[in-house]
Amino acid sequence: MTMDPSRFQMFYGPEGRMTLVDRALEAVMRGAISIGLRFPRYAVLASMVKPTRKLMKPSDKVFVVDDHVGVTGSGYISDLYRIVDHMRIEAQRHRLLFDAAVDVGTLVDSVSGYFHGYTLYPVRPQGVAVIIGGVDKLGVQLYQVDPSGTAFNGDAFALGVNSDKAIDMLENEYRPDMTLDEALNLITSVVERTGNPEPTIQVGYISLDNPVFRRETINGVKKKST
User: Between the N and C ends of the chain, which has fewer C-beta atoms within 10 Å?
Assistant: First the structure.
């Protein structure tokens, strides 16, 4: 029996790339910018929030998964909500089974598997990429997971519109000895310089000294003290 090559066009393009995943990545690149930074003693997640209509309240973009883990992302907000629910269930399941908080790497593996599952069949991959930050027994952790299920570990990530430009700025201006004030000002400055004057940014942060993920909203360049 001869296979019809057109049946596989939805999976792989001429260069061997996964067509549906590429479309999902395009959705991520159209989303509002999100940034994650890791330092030796703390991590920060941030995302620009903006309502789609003047009289609408903006949607949350930074979420508490468990006391010691937070997540943000860019892309379809409904898909982001689904992955947040998945992560929260996994975190609670781990607590029930092992009577301990889930380590960040295990949670990232679960997210990777969740995303990857949508690439195995002719269904729409999740149109969102996420940045996960937290503290566990290995220290401060920061990961990015894209719609293919590929996970990256690092010190700085950016997703969404003009994220390539944002990454270039972070590579030039990030310092591992930054205070939280300086990190928040860097994030706000990067968001502004990528074409978002006077942005409203939702942020979350966690530290080794206080391993509880906290959230707040800042407007424009604002000093933050802890």
Answer: N
CA 85 – CA 87 distance, rounded (Å): 5
Instruction: Determine phi and psi for 175, rounding to 5 degrees.
Output: -135, 135
Among 38, 26, 25, which Cα is nearest to 132's? 38
The reported pLDDT for the residue numbered 198 is: 84
Whether 93 maps to a domain, the answer reads: yes
pTM (2 d.p.): 0.90
Residue 220: what pLDDT? 52
Q: How many domains would you assign to the chain?
A: 1
Check if the beta carbon of residue 46 is closer than 8 Å to that of residue 190. Answer: no
Residue 6 lies in a domain: no
Q: Which of 223, 214, 222 is nearest to 44 (CA)?
A: 214
**Structural tokens at position 207:** 């530290």
Q: Are strands 34-38 and 151-153 parallel, antiparallel or unpaired?
A: unpaired
Q: What is the CATH number of the domain that holds 154?
A: 3.60.20.10
DSSP 210: S
Residue 226 belongs to some domain of the structure: no
pLDDT along the chain (226 residues), means of 10: 50 71 92 97 95 80 97 96 98 96 97 94 91 97 97 98 97 97 96 91 97 87 40
Euclidean distance between CA atoms 224 and 226, whole angstroms? 7
Helix, strand, coil shares, percent, the chain, to 5: 35, 30, 40
